[in-house]
TrEMBL record:
Alphabetized PANTHER family for the sequence: 2-IMINOACETATE SYNTHASE, THIAZOLE BIOSYNTHESIS PROTEIN
Coiled coil segments of this chain: none
Segments forming domain Radical SAM core: 67-309
GO terms of molecular function: 4 iron, 4 sulfur cluster binding; catalytic activity; metal ion binding
Cofactor names: [4Fe-4S] cluster; [2Fe-2S] cluster
Stored InterPro entries: Aldolase_TIM (IPR013785), BATS_dom (IPR010722), Elp3/MiaA/NifB-like_rSAM (IPR006638), FeFe-hyd_mat_HydG (IPR024007), rSAM (IPR007197), rSAM_sf (IPR058240), ThiH/NoCL/HydG-like (IPR034428)
Protein name: Radical SAM core domain-containing protein
GO biological process annotation, one example: water-soluble vitamin biosynthetic process
Organism: Endomicrobium trichonymphae
């Protein structure tokens, strides 16, 4: 695609809106209609606490209408921190002499996956630095995906592997799809060209077009679930959000579908990076909440991901404002998962990509969601039923996806409770399942009861 028109984005930043205009835009969002970039800019311009509350209420309504009260759980698996790129904000930068480099073997990747399976994880985001050549990258990524899927713990296997890796050739993307990945995720980091070139000083990533074109190549290779996002704090967050929305408009026009997910990471300190410890464009938590809510309203059918970069209290707030996927007990270093370990091991401080602020275990994260009335979901049914890309959007826009997601989420929650949860958590989870049974229609209740009884008899991994 062509680069984002920075002049046009800046013109949107000058937009202001009256209370009447804001109310009109929010009324449109309640009909689950996509917003224009200009309308989104008007929402981002809001400062009034009374209007912000209206935005938050609308975002909560849209999120619950499209996705229900489910929150998808996943865990990142870092397989290598070798990287040819020099990015000023990243602990993996090739010129960072502090970082201890590590590249997991396929056997080590399988062993790390088995540790995660023992804890109850079913969805993995595979992450790696960019190595010396596209072909080398592809061979390693494909082998790693196969290693993850080959892992087994008492019949439990990973249901879905999403990947956050470097751009590849068209043939490389096709091989990745054949390996069975779910979503291909790549961040532009910053859409502001001058800032991009200043922060990415060497390596293939120094060319901003390389990353923009990666999305096109993924679509052309048949990967219709893609994830995008900026690294917030590199430039004005309003510019980044509006530029990303222009990128989404391009995707919708070119391929008939926007991103399956959007991530909104904020820059965090990283070993060896002075820039990451003092970013040029920090912004307040209230502005962060606003941008998440505006994203939910702008692209109502797209999943919003919140990583453990954010503190626990912030993540607990944001699942109410539009976030639909969260990670738990993340280790952001290759080989960081250890049996029975709690928190970040001390020996990974010079190997990780950035600092982690929410160090809750999966059990603790599940408990937090249950206490807020959310359904922690370990489902991957849409991917396995080929409900991806435009097909997924058809289900989402008709509202049918919510019905299926509620049942699948409750089923996967019961599996987790039966196989991995402590007694206190089981009681809390079973109580929530009983509550949600009353919200299902008769047909849905019959399906849930059937699957639930099968779980009690030892059957696993049923879904609609």
């Amino acid at each position: 695609m062509k680069r984002i028109d920075g002049i046009k984005v800046n013109s949107f930043l000058e937009i202001k809106a009256s209370e009447k205009e804001i109310d009109g835009i929010l009324e449109k969002t309640k009909q689950l209609k996509r917003l224009s970039v200009e309308e989104s800019a008007k929402l981002l311009s809001v400062r009034s606490s009374a209007l912000l509350k209206k935005i938050y209420d609308a975002a909560s309504y849209v999120k619950n209408t499209v996705y229900g009260r489910r929150v998808v759980m996943f865990v990142p698996l870092y397989i290598s921190n070798f990287c040819v790129n020099s990015c000023l904000y990243c602990g993996f930068a090739s010129n960072n002499k502090l970082t201890v480099r590590k590249k997991l073997t396929f056997q080590e990747i399988k062993e790390q996956t088995e540790i995660l399976l023992k804890r109850g994880h079913k969805r993995i985001l595979m992450v790696a630095g960019e190595m010396s050549s596209s072909e080398e990258n592809t061979d390693y990524y494909v082998g790693a995906v196969k290693a993850i899927y080959s892992a087994d713990y008492k019949g439990n296997k990973i249901k879905r592997v999403n990947v956050n890796v470097a751009p590849m050739s068209l043939s490389g993307f096709k091989r990745l799809k054949e390996a069975g990945i779910g979503t291909y995720q790549i961040f532009q980091e910053t859409y502001h060209e001058e800032t991009y070139r200043k922060l990415h000083i060497a390596g293939a990533k120094s060319d901003p077009d390389n990353r923009l074109d990666a999305i096109d190549n993924a679509f052309k290779a048949g990967i219709d679930d893609v994830g995008i996002g900026p690294l917030l704090g590199l430039y004005d967050y309003r510019f980044e959000i509006l530029a990303m929305l222009m990128h989404i408009e391009y995707m919708e026009k070119a391929y008939g579908v926007g991103p399956h997910t959007i991530s909104v990471p904020r820059i965090e300190p990283a070993p060896g990076s002075a820039y990451a410890s003092a970013p040029e464009y920090p912004f307040a938590d209230e502005e962060f909440k606003k941008l998440v809510a505006v994203l939910r309203l702008s692209v109502p059918y797209t999943g919003i991901i919140m990583s453990t970069r954010e503190a626990a209290d912030m993540r607990d707030v944001l699942v109410n404002l539009g976030v639909s996927q969260v990670s738990a007990e993340s280790r952001v270093t290759p080989g960081g998962y250890e049996d029975n370990s709690v928190g970040i091991p001390h020996n990974d401080k010079l190997e990780r990509q950035f600092s982690v602020n929410d160090q809750r275990t999966l059990d603790e994260m599940v408990k937090s969601l249950l206490l807020q009335g959310f359904i922690p979901s370990f489902c991957a049914a849409c991917y396995r039923k080929n409900r991806t890309g435009e097909h997924f959007m058809d289900f989402a826009k008709s509202g049918e996806i919510k019905h299926m997601c509620d049942i699948n989420a409750l089923v996967t929650l019961k599996e987790y409770l039966e196989d991995f949860a402590k007694p206190e958590l089981k009681e809390l989870g079973y109580s929530l399942i009983e509550k949600y049974k009353t919200k299902l229609d008769k047909a849905g209740l019959r399906v849930l009861e059937k699957f639930s009884n099968n779980i009690s008899c030892g059957v696993r991994d049923e879904y609609i």
